[in-house]
Fold:
Amino acid sequence: MDPVGIEAMNAFCGTACVDVRELMVHRGLDTARFEELLLDRKTVTMPWEDPVTFGVNAAKPLLDALPPAELDRVEMLIACTESGLDFGKPLAAYLHHWLGLNRNCRLFELKSACYSGTAGLQAAVSFVLSRTSPGAKALVVATDVARGAATDDPCAVTMDWAFSEPSGGAGAVALLVGEHPGVFGFDVGANGYHGHEVMDTCRPTPDGEAGDPDVGLMTYLDACEQTFRAYRERVPGADYRTSFDYLAFHTPFGGMVRSAHRTMMRRVARVPAAEIEPDFRRRVLPGICHTRQTGNTMGAGVFLSLAGTIEAADPAGGQRVGCFSYGSGCCAEFYSGVVAPGASDRVAALGIGARLASRRRLRPAEYDGVARAGLRFGTRNAVVDPGEDEPGRLVLRGVREFRREYAWT
Structure:
């Protein structure tokens, strides 16, 4: 089978954040549950940020590093999001323009809740493997923002989303997929899928989120088991405990991943209870290093976990990583690949952790103000103050007759 995988990857998760414990106190929530979250801060989307700016700022460093001849071979751009700005026009059109890609490019937007990133990735892998355009590359950009806004409703903390708000983050991960996987090579054909209809979480209005967190947790846990069992049918002898050096999970919050891993170790690997937590810390916790600073990045969540995992891997490469992706509604997939030699140094050099640490830290009251100031879906005309940002980043400047207008700082 021809090689295919991630040639380069990068993340951009905004310029501001809020401390999750402080936010829970501000909301009057029970902070006894804080330790279960494995979550320190969450990204706050500033008024000059949206899914387009996140996606472009994640992808641009990857494309800037390509020689012109290779840049012209990016022939597919997939925007993976549940945070679209339009019922028809795809985010990919904005991304394509601001990234300066060749017009000989197939571009579209894909929505499947938090599974969207993996759905786009697998479409890109299939495109490269098809060799309908030998040597072509695909750019996959998973980009999302939490829709829940601040509210003055005194009953708000009793709603189902009261405990999901602290974990609702934002951000983007960009993946360049091609025939020379210098970061992560896929085990082609090693995939297990699982899907069915369930009402766990949803976005029933353009700017609202709803759902049942308990149903969401149980569905996530069941999907993890079912996808691995399907994976094992395609990969005889695959063992959850021994086949993977690391595991990267879609991460709504770290505590959910810990529950999934514990369930898998008990029900599938059938190991003694005393061995589960050490195994979690060795194989899973490295992938939570970035996600605990961002909150749930939705379609990008499993890739942000993969980035942290690769950074922790041996620079010599060769480690196999099992990846679990889940999207509400629901569809899920378990797949795997191998870390390329030198990948850990290449991903670490992007400074994802340093950028997260350098974000402006908002007080909860400031966070409320930012949430109220954000542009709503369907805004026709608006002017946005871009604030202060580092040079070379894309920011939102306003909306004119529904068309979003951007500029480089």
Notes: The longest helix spans residues 213-234.
